[in-house]
Design goal:
- This protein is of the alpha+beta class.
- The chain folds into three domains: about 200 residues, 4-Layer Sandwich (Aldehyde Ferredoxin Oxidoreductase,  A, domain 1), CATH 3.60.9; about 160 residues, Orthogonal Bundle (Aldehyde Ferredoxin Oxidoreductase Protein, subunit A, domain 2); about 200 residues, Aldehyde Ferredoxin Oxidoreductase Protein, subunit A, domain 3 (Orthogonal Bundle), CATH 1.10.599.
- About 40% of the residues lie in helices and about 10% in strands.
- The strands form four sheets. It has a six-stranded mixed beta sheet with strand order 2-1-6-3-4-5. A six-stranded mixed beta sheet has the order 8-7-12-9-10-11, with helices on both faces.
- Helix 19 crosses helix 23.
- The longest helix has 21 residues.
- It starts with 8 loop residues before the first strand and ends with a helix.
- It binds iron/sulfur cluster (SF4).
- Iron/sulfur cluster (SF4) binds next to loops.
Length: about 625
């Protein structure tokens, strides 16, 4: 008997409206841990290279990691994986919240959609029985209206749905889960829209039996105590929650202002916790987790149940577009939840357009009368709607900043702050060199949580407790956040592999080492208590490394190389101009050397592709065959 997982994957053929099942072996569950690692094996083994992300034969995959969705703190996570329409490489959207639990109750460890329905449909899994239902009356509806209509028939269901942005294939459309939880950062909502799949609805069912339920309960009891002793976990717990980053380490590390043109910001007093209080509407809890990270914020004219605010939204829709008006940021975030769009990519696509306009690369005649100036008067609400509905200039911006620059021309490419075609994030990387390395080399494109931030390790301002778990990872000393060199590369490799493993298992990085509650050893304990497998920290870390290898291999198969691991020139040519790290910028030669060193440390060749010896080392011999096919 297997513990912790169902032992089967559901395939949904949307073209022919047929279901089938696949039963991975125990070795496959052990090797891949289910989740996004198992998902990328399906992409590599079952989908052809070079197909468009919107090709009907492209896969869209909802997977629980093997721990994800079980009833303990920090396990309310799942992933949506496929080919990203933003980058053309691997797309991975991770999401917290109740849907992770529902997916675990569905009777399947993963759901793979292929094909394309002729008419809009939704997948309903009721008491572990799947069926496709017409969603024609839901098509065109915002997320809140979609949820309301579905809940009328299935009141206890958990719902992952796209909004109009996904239907219109906005390349940074996301999937909104249970109204407030965003599966963002890879355009997976657009892939869902391309398949005419409006929603995935799960009700009833049960989680698979776990190996040691009593010990799992004990871990849960200890979690709350440890959480209360952890200053960073409590920063997540206390209001305003994730939205508060500008008033913590944002300022120490320098702020992204006006599309990274400057770091000067004389209005940070507009983002204080006290200012947030006016808009607070409650929590959007993750089941079985006491950390309550996701808070809801809305203005008086918004649907308060659509206000889930995540880290980075404030930065990208605030200082990044010159917007000091907190109410406008909060409203734009609610609109992102309603239309189903990544607020981070939205912010950086708008800031691209603002800078293009500032430099007259964008003709006034294209603006449709909207205000595109940096500042609080920018027409963010109108722009958000235009992009979601692909109206006028919005149709161009719906392609994302990099593609929009190609369309607009006039040398506007330099204003697109993107890597691999994916928009950057607003956590400054000239001051945090591990983040710089991560933004450049991550197969999925830039993510603010690609690794624990350099700030946390800084000799001056890092958290006191940072080193406790870090020493168990071999990180023995603090390093200034802006320092760049081999020691930092080594730290990045470890920290990125760690969170890669956390993601692969279906755990939450906001509950895990190096700075939150679970230590690496406790992650291994959890894995054992859920599955019954004898395991170790070594096996957990290897899983994270394997995820990185297979993600990079997928990108390589799709034509990526070292040329795609590039940051915008601005970070090398322009110094930080405000704050404690004013005068810092990235050194191009050192940065290139860091990338090459990182490839070597990971066992990748000079193009950034896993070497054959690495493939064999991680026991995925079938992947070496793919490498042979390419070479
Ligand atoms: S740590 Fe926060 S985001 Fe993660 S599962 Fe718990 S409440 Fe959700």
């Amino acid at each position: 008997m297997n513990f912790g997982y169902h032992g089967k994957i559901l395939y949904v053929d949307l073209t022919h409206k047929k279901f089938s099942e696949q039963k991975p072996t125990e070795i496959e569950y052990r090797r891949y841990g289910s989740g996004s690692v198992m998902a990328v094996t399906k992409l590599l083994q079952e989908t052809p290279a070079d197909i468009d992300a919107f090709d009907p034969e492209a896969y869209l995959m909802f997977f629980n990691g093997i721990l994800g969705g079980h009833q303990a703190p920090g396990l309310a996570r799942f992933t949506i994986t496929g080919k990203s329409p933003a980058t053309g490489g691997i797309g991975e959207a991770r999401c917290e919240g109740p849907f992770a639990m529902a997916l675990k109750r569905s009777g399947y460890d993963g759901i793979i959609f292929r094909g394309k329905s002729e008419q809009p449909v939704m997948l309903l899994i009721e008491n572990q029985i799947p069926q496709l239902i017409s969603a024609e009356e839901l098509w065109g509806q915002k997320v809140s209206d979609t949820v309301e209509k579905i809940k009328a028939d299935y009141p206890d269901s958990s719902i992952a749905t796209i909004g109009p942005a996904g239907e219109n294939k906005v390349r940074f459309a996301n999937i909104i889960c249970d109204q407030n939880h965003q599966a963002s950062r890879a355009g997976m909502g657009a892939v869902m829209g391309s398949k005419n799949l409006k929603a995935v609805v799960i009700t009833g069912g049960h989680v698979p039996e776990v190996y040691a339920p009593n010990q799992l309960e004990e871990i849960s009891r200890n979690f709350t105590k440890k959480m209360q002793e952890n200053v960073l976990s409590m920063w997540q717990y206390d209001r305003p929650g994730f939205g508060a980053w500008i008033h913590t380490h944002g300022i120490d590390a320098a702020l992204c202002v006006n599309n990274y043109q400057t770091n000067e910001c004389d209005y940070t007093d507009q983002y204080t916790p006290e200012k947030f209080a006016e808009f607070y509407k409650g929590e959007s809890p993750c089941p079985y987790c006491p950390n309550n990270c996701i808070k809801r914020y809305a203005t008086a004219s918004d649907n308060e149940f659509m206000g889930g605010l995540h880290q980075e939204a404030l930065g990208s829709l605030g200082p990044n577009i010159g917007n000091s008006d907190l109410a406008k940021i909060i409203k734009a975030n609610v609109l992102c939840n309603e239309y189903g769009m990544d607020p981070n990519s939205l912010g950086f696509t708008i800031s691209f357009a603002q800078e293009a306009k500032q430099n007259e690369a964008l003709d006034e005649s294209m603006l449709s009368g909207i205000n595109l100036n940096f500042g609080p008067d920018v027409d963010i609400e109108k722009l958000t709607e235009m992009i979601a509905k692909r109206q006028d200039l919005g149709d161009i911006l719906a392609e994302g900043a990099a593609r929009a620059a190609e369309i607009i021309g006039n040398d506007s490419r330099e204003y697109a702050m993107t890597v691999k075609g994916n928009e950057l994030v607003s956590t400054e990387c000239r001051s945090q060199t591990n983040l710089a390395l991560g933004y450049a080399t991550a197969a999925v494109g830039p993510r603010y949580d690609i690794c624990e931030h350099d700030w946390d390790y800084d000799t001056e301002v890092g958290w006191e407790h940072t080193m406790n778990y870090s020493r168990t990872l071999g990180i023995l000393e603090r390093i200034p956040m802006h320092y760049s060199g081999p020691e930092k590369v080594n730290d990045y490799k470890v920290l990125n592999n760690l969170w890669s493993a956390v993601d692969a298992l279906g755990m939450c990085i906001f509950a895990s080492a190096p700075t939150r509650v679970y230590s690496l050893a406790e992650m291994a304990d959890l894995f054992h208590q859920v599955t019954g497998f004898e395991t170790s920290s070594y096996e957990i870390m290897r899983l994270g490394e394997l995820k990185n290898h297979l993600f990079r291999l997928y990108n390589y198969r799709e034509g990526f190389s070292k040329e795609d691991d590039k940051l915008p020139d601005r970070f090398f040519e322009q110094e930080i101009n405000a704050g404690a790290l004013a005068g810092k910028k990235l050194d191009r030669e050192q940065f290139e050397s860091n990338i090459e060193l990182y490839y070597e440390m990971m066992g990748w060749d000079e193009s950034g592709c896993p070497r054959k010896v690495t493939i064999y080392d991680y026991g995925v011999d079938w992947a070496a065959g793919i490498l042979d096919g390419i070479n």
